[in-house]
Protein: Phenylalanine--tRNA ligase, mitochondrial
Amino acid sequence: MAAQRPSHCVTVLGEQYPTDHMTNISPTIVSKLPLKLHTQPSHPLSTLRALIESHFPTYAHLSSLSPLVTPYQNFDLLSFPADHPGRSVTDSYYVNKDLMLRTHTSAHEVEVFERGETKWLLTADVYRRDEIDGSHYPVFHQTEGARIVSANPAGMKEIEEDNERLAAHLERSNIEIEDVPHLSPINPCQPAHDPKHTELIAKNLKLSLNSLMLHLFAGRVGATAQNPLRVRWIEATFPWTTPSFEVEVFFRGKWLEILGCGVIYQPTLDNANVSDKLGWAFGLGLERIAMVLYSIPDIRLFWSQDPRFLSQFKQGEITTFKPYSKYPACFKDVSFWLPEGQGLHENDFCDLVRDVAGDVVEDVKLMDNFTHPKTNRKSLCYRINYRSMDRSLSNDEANSLNAQVVSCLRDRFGVEIR
Ligand code: PHE
Structure:
């Protein structure tokens, strides 16, 4: 008998899945899943991954976990509240209600700890619905790093010795650190922890990451030997770490947000069956760092197949990107009335535009948002900037893409074009 195909299904990475009311994964996104730029030799994201890995030579280096996870893995195991906005279909991509694309590499923390790894890095593609501009793309890459030790004198001794070694290294380096206390009333110790242990772990986290920042940024173009590398620590909150921090680096005249991190919340480790351990985790975004290290001006370039982009890079080398000519922009406005009582989320508009025009769209801006005082109907006007990174786009081509956007908008959302 022929295999029965469910009538409503979607194929993702060669497997078929039933769809339901939550399904919002788009063809553009599905096409990105097999690409794994962070493992493509000589790609800037692959070099950056390897550079981070080389700083943690004794850690396990993982980079081939499937992007399909359950909402339980992505959120619940990490103590996200039930009403967290990240769970909504306007923020995340769902295959169906039980399966989604990971929104962060933290989605794998519990399973990696459960496998028995105690020092590890994991690099992967992550997916978030977002607006369209030069620094946002619905797929990007993160590296997660974590270290756990036994919550006993032997574990604490291991951390103390490592702290001495790292502190001595940093003392000899040209780095200026703006710190915050390891613990504070808004960034407290967890009830399950001895504050002395937490202090040691937080110190190990800070020393390890300050030293990673030196490894990534010191000695690069624009960072001179006279100027110290400036790193700033900020108090933060994440549902699966306490205390939590963010790290920023001052590079080429700007403070750059680099990563989030913290002391792992004990229930997360309980979920992984390693209650007798404690430790830290961090997660950093690769594109933002690669954009500044390589001077890559537009996030779409990472996805370019153009040899003028790809042939510029060699595995293991950070070089300054030489832009090829910038092609003219072509702006088109789309104004429409929404059906009565209906709204349209900006991320839904942007995904539709990406499905029609792909990476030929440079940015999308909301120009006008008006509600008719009598009918209460809502009208929106978006300005789409069509510009290819690889070639000159004719006005006819832009018009034809824009006509397809308009017709899709009518079909999908029942809008009336103004
Ligand atoms: N997953 C977080 C993010 O995407 C970063 C993070 C990782 C924070 C690990 C704390 C610990 O922003």
Summary: The chain has two domains: 11-310, 325-417. The first strand starts at residue 9 and ends at 12. The mean pLDDT is 95.
